[in-house]
Design brief:
Distance between the termini: 12 Å
Shape: globular
Helix content: 25-40%
Strand content: 25-35%
Number of strands: 8
CATH class: Alpha Beta
CATH architecture: 2-Layer Sandwich
Length: 224
């Protein structure tokens, strides 16, 4: 099974169109996940360099396929002015709650797109991120879903060089309440401590630079 992640910069046709999923099924796709920056998550923080033209990521599509990745990507190529795709290897430190097909997860699903800093080897980067940073991220944030995707290769021309794509699920109340986002229980001192610890850990592997942060609504369909 191959996992693919596609970043869309600007959107065109409806991304939840059943006909789209039917076409993907025909290429061997067995699972389809849509993360879209929509009105529901409008109050959330978002930032990042975006693509080469400075266009922000507006949606992320994740596919699991037994078929030819190029065929699946071809189905999605015209969904936005710019579509980039990567093959990834996933780790799932915190499994998100199961939600019925096509139902919005009751969560703020943040997508973080990470770039390895110059001067740091891939091995060093992955060691710090996966082994050192992961438990700190879990301990300092109020996440109830946490999926890490190691980028193995770019699959479309012009795709930015990425190291990782992360999805973290937070309570919807975290949209506007920092204590809910970080799980600090209303304690300002604890909130400050958690942010300080997290940011120090993030800086160790360069995730405080060149980061795209995309707040999204999350939907999943089982196509098998």
């Amino acid at each position: 099974m191959t996992k693919l992640i596609l970043a869309l910069h600007g959107t065109g046709p409806a991304l939840d169109d059943p006909a789209l999923r039917t076409r993907l099924t025909a290429t061997g796709v067995s699972r389809f996940q849509l993360n879209v920056d929509d009105e529901t998550v409008a109050p959330a923080m978002r930032f990042g360099p975006g693509d080469a033209q400075g266009r922000p990521i507006t949606a992320v599509i994740t596919l699991w396929t037994e078929g030819d990745p190029a065929a699946a990507i071809g189905v999605l190529a015209d969904l936005a002015p710019a579509v980039h795709a990567w093959r990834v290897t996933e780790r799932r430190p915190i499994e998100p709650p199961t939600v019925a097909d096509g139902q919005r997860a009751d969560a703020l699903a943040n997508i973080a797109v990470l770039r390895r800093p110059e001067g740091m080897t891939r091995e060093e980067y992955l060691d710090i991120w996966l082994n050192d940073h992961t438990p700190i991220a879990i301990a300092t944030q109020n996440t109830f879903g946490y999926i890490q995707n190691i980028v193995e290769e770019a699959l479309t021309p012009g795709s930015p060089e990425l190291s990782a794509i992360v999805e973290e699920l937070f309570p919807m109340s975290g949209l506007t309440d920092m204590h809910e986002f970080y799980g600090s229980g209303g304690d300002d001192e604890e909130l400050s401590r958690r942010i300080t610890v997290l940011m120090a850990s993030v800086a160790r592997f360069g995730a405080d630079q060149g980061l795209d942060l995309v707040p999204t609504s999350r939907y999943v369909w089982d196509l098998a």
